[in-house]
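Hey team,

Filing this mostly as a record. A colleague (T.K.) asked me to run one chain through the structure pipeline before their review meeting, and I want the input and output archived in the tracker in case anyone asks later how it was produced. No errors, nothing strange. Just documentation.

Input sequence:
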Amino acid sequence: MNYKFFVGSETPQNHPIPGREKEMIRGHSGGWMFDAGIWQTLRRCLLIGTAQRTYYADKQELTGTFVDVLLSAIAQNPERVAGEIVYASDGRAINNSAPILALVLLSAGETPEAKRAFLEIFPQVVRTGSHFYEWLNYTKSLRGFGKVIREAGTSWLSREDVKGLAYQFLKYQQRHGFSNRDALRLFHVQPPTSEHDLLFEWATKGWEILPERAPSEALSQIWWYEWLKRNPDRTHEAIAKGHLTHEMAAPVGKMDEKAWQLLFNEMPIGALLRNLGSLTQLRILRGDKPANLKRVKGNLNNVKHLRKGRIHPIDVLKALKTYQSGGKVGRSQKSWTPVPQIVDILEKALELSFDAIAPTGKVFLHAVDISGSMSSYTVSSVNLSCCEVATTMALATAKAEENYAIRGFSTQFIDLGIHRKDSFSDAIAKARKHNFGGTDASVAYDWAIRKKFKADVICFWTDSESWAGRRHPSQALAEYRRRVNPDVKAVYITLAPYNISLVDPNDPNSWDIAGFDPGTPRLIQMLATGEL
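Output structure:
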């Protein structure tokens, strides 16, 4: 995978760098930056998504840019686009919506190579029933159900793993305006086996009369769900013997504390992370229930479990912010008193959700963008600001090293008082106090020159809309190299889905990285040591 992207600097007083006019474009803020190029912009859009507005652009404008870039990339190299979609979908994007949208547009590519690439990656991207119905929704809106769509849909619905398909049918009976019955009728799927036939019959007609026992092992979970609908007073038995999830049991059973305890005992890691508040409100998670707390810790503080569950750091950060609020933020209608041990577990889970390697011994200067635009851009339903995400990612990278400084820039470069032993919650609170003002990334270099701070790597965590100040960041970097450290490497981690960058494309020791990637700390360390 090629992680190197040459991107560009930014302009003072809204003028491009003299002699570099043809290489530069105006950002949404009106300042001049270098063009990030379609491949870097594509990766940003896939990882970050365009469902939320930013300070400088609304979501319609951002999505329009994403679609334009995607169509250009598909025309150039559909196989590479397919690789980028899979890369983002494999737990690196903050959610799977942008990769699914890109998948739909790839299927509409005019060349046989585009359609072949679409079919090859389809099962890697559309993994759950929810993904499948989201894909159907985008497909209906953007292109219609042609031959290649019917081939992909039919293949997904007639997969060999009947038990896995039954699980998806039961867990996601309808989403995004489609139901199981709608999908089967749309694609006219012929059941390849007798078990498929029984499953399809249940999905389209239901069971008016419950069989005495499950027709097959593959349909056992469905049988217990139907049994529970007819025997809601025996919810505990259905959950224990049928291994039902909360999506299956809660709508039809009589739920009490014991029922939720049984669900908790087998709850998948993603559901566990999303339901910590509810489980606390239901008294499943309490300080006097150490066995339950141990199970939460065993799941959320285990790197292998986090990776297998494709748990993104933003998911953990959302959970942490929501849980600490006691239900005051997010979509929950419930309230609870946070259990301190759960907060500690989430703090550790957030650190573990990032990829990092052993300390490199290099000196890192982290410049966190704390300008006003970083507070106005939110990336989730719990109103995580871009500044909060930037602070989290900078701290996660600093925690992997021993030699570092973390400061914040707007039109000044200030000490945020953040240290590697801080909790993420404390670090975010410190940054939030200073989250206002214009944007001038060059002030970080100015400070480092004045202080003769000899960094091996200078990392900028920003939306890259640097428009204020007397010179471009690339010009300030050139002076820093002349006066302090000629070998310094500059890394700009862009946290908004824009097509701009602060990296001079002629600078071989500056990099632009698409933000929100869990592997960012490890990538920065590898750049520091020359492994990339």
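Quick notes for T.K.: Confidence is low (pLDDT under 50) at residues 1-13. DSSP finds 26 helices and eleven strands in the chain.
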